[in-house]
Amino acid sequence: MHYDxxxxxxFVAVAEELNFHLAAERLGLTQPAVSRxxxxxxxxxxxxxxxxxxxxxxxxxxxxxxxxEAQDILPRVTQAxxxxxLIAAGTKGILxxxxxTINGHAFVPDVVNHFRAQNPDVQVDLVYLAAPPQRDxxxxxxxxxxxxxxxxxGSQIVTRLAARHRLLVLLSPDHPLAAKDVLTIEDIAExxxxxxxxxxxxxxxxxxxxxxxxxxxxxxxxQELPTLTSxxxxxxxxxGITIFPGFPRFATAALVSRPLMTEPxxxxxxxxxxxxxxxNAALRLFRDSVKTVAAxxxxxxxxx
Length: 304
Known about the structure:
This protein is an alpha/beta fold. The protein has three domains: 5-89, Orthogonal Bundle (Arc Repressor Mutant, subunit A); 93-162 and 270-300, 3-Layer(aba) Sandwich (D-Maltodextrin-Binding Protein, domain 2); 165-267, D-Maltodextrin-Binding Protein, domain 2. 44% of the residues lie in helices and 23% in strands. It is built from twelve helices and twelve strands. Strands 3, 4, 5, 6, 7, 10, 11 and 12 form an eight-stranded mixed sheet that branches. A two-stranded antiparallel ribbon has the order 1-2. Helix 9 links the parallel strand 8 and strand 9. The radius of gyration is 31 Å and the shape is rod-shaped. It starts with a helix and ends with a helix.
């Protein structure tokens, strides 16, 4: 009963040509070899697939059924082998990448767009997560990689610096502080500061808290909101100010930004992290895109 793909390929050629000589030319085999392989297939199956006379070759009902099935199977087997090679090369497959609010508004879209342009057959699934749960999912393999604030040192995870972001104060152009070209901690310490919730901005909130403490002030949060979009909505109604690394691309003309000046200058770093033992070949190509986009001056410049 056992037969292999060679049996099917030879049978399909004969069944489509209905001529052993033409099938042999098509396959690059001798006619006796083709006849022997078809006969061997019939013996293994225990059925007649072809009716042969000196003048013609005709399919039996069983032969027509097997031809139909084989014509469906053989291309899929070929495609499966091709896809396996592409996956091994990293040019086909699925990547699951985490990101945060901070890097999701500009840097991550640039990286993903660059990667997709180079690797259109790799599906990139993006997962919005704060940095701590990203690290957990990278270790368990639920994520192939993730963009997060700050580096992470561990035996299982590797991180690489990808971008630096200067802290900006975002506010309505009608706000009194908008008249200044730059702002200091002293300027904003008593303002209505709106930040993301601890669940959504855990790392950034701690970072901003440290900046205030470094200037001898206590961060007073007036309002907490879960998304950057909702925060910007409050700002457009002149309900307060926020502190964010960079100016969000989707922010409207209803908002302006002012550099938050500190001594020394404070920069928020975005790092790309992945599990050291990850074998997804597409991840290597994705890291190449991260490196390429990161090399753009406006992402790693100290003046960002």
